[in-house]
Specification:
transmembrane transporter activity, nucleotide-binding, binds adenosine-5'-triphosphate, alpha/beta, ATP hydrolysis activity, globular, about 230 residues, about 35% helix, AAA+_ATPase, 4-stranded antiparallel β-sheet
């Protein structure tokens, strides 16, 4: 057995702000080891984004505990959580979430700045990261000058900036054509294999699911199946 990187126990989340409370997650258990490449699937509304948000500390469960790399994040104060996230978890979202007025260099450099990386080292690291996703020549482009696939690759480079152990990706290919989606998955698989970064990504896309080595299916906020497969 490898090292446990994500360990969720009895995680439940009920959204109570709505007229009728929504039980988005019910007693979810999840155990993921370092270096896994896991797809989170299930019908719309089954709780995938909610679970990713709980693991990434973007929101708190109503009950249950979440450990990330041995740290019980459900116990951390908001400030400690921000710090922990910055150091340990990279996020990739369906809508890319790049800052439109900033260039690729600035979008990625911004994260490094938050980490107080000196300017000279930032520049070097930005170029390294863009090279990893095959976009060195787009260092001075703003998101509006890039294709969807290229924007998402910049978003992956930004997620990698803090050298996270885990990348959580919420439907990263949802807004991409199939060629760009394939390309993004190849980059993610390479980072997983070469740098041992753990990936947990939600998706509806069958071709993306086929690339995973483990597929966890949520139905009505519960784990319905958890299957190890050989990726194509
Ligand atoms: N902030 C919120 N307030 C109230 N209800 C919410 C909130 N966020 C999600 N929900 C509800 O929680 C349930 C799970 O939503 P979630 O977004 O986690 O599902 P999902 O599996 O990611 O769906 P999709 O595949 O459509 O993105 C849904 O019934 C949704 O309507």
């Amino acid at each position: 057995m490898g090292k446990t990187i994500i360990d969720a126990h009895n995680v439940s989340k009920t959204y109570k702000e709505t007229m009728v409370p929504v039980k988005a997650l019910q007693d979810v258990h999840l155990h993921i080891e370092e270096g896994e490449f896991v797809a989170l699937v299930g019908p719309s509304g089954s709780g995938k984004s909610t679970l990713l948000n709980m693991i990434g500390g973007l929101d708190e469960p109503t009950s249950g505990t979440v450990f990330v790399d041995g740290v019980e994040i459900t116990k951390l104060s908001e400030n400690k959580m921000i710090d922990f996230r910055l150091q340990n978890i990279g996020f990739v979202f369906q809508s890319f979430n790049l800052i439109p007025v900033l260039t690729s260099r600035e979008n990625i450099g911004f994260v490094l700045q938050l980490q107080k990386v000196p300017k000279k080292d930032r520049e070097k690291r930005v170029l390294e990261l863009l090279r990893e996703v095959g976009l060195e020549e787009k260092v001075n482009s703003r998101p509006g000058e890039l294709s969807g696939g290229q924007q998402q690759r910049v978003a992956v480079a930004r997620a990698l900036a803090s050298k996270p152990k885990i990348i959580l990706a919420d439907e990263p290919t949802a807004n991409l054509d199939s060629k760009s989606a394939g390309n993004l998955m190849d980059i993610m698989a390479k980072l997983n294999q070469e740098e041992k970064i753990t990936f947990l990504f939600s998706t509806h896309d069958q071709r993306v699911i086929e690339k995973a080595r483990r597929v966890i299916t949520l139905v009505d906020g519960k784990v319905d199946s958890d299957v190890v497969q050989t990726p194509t």
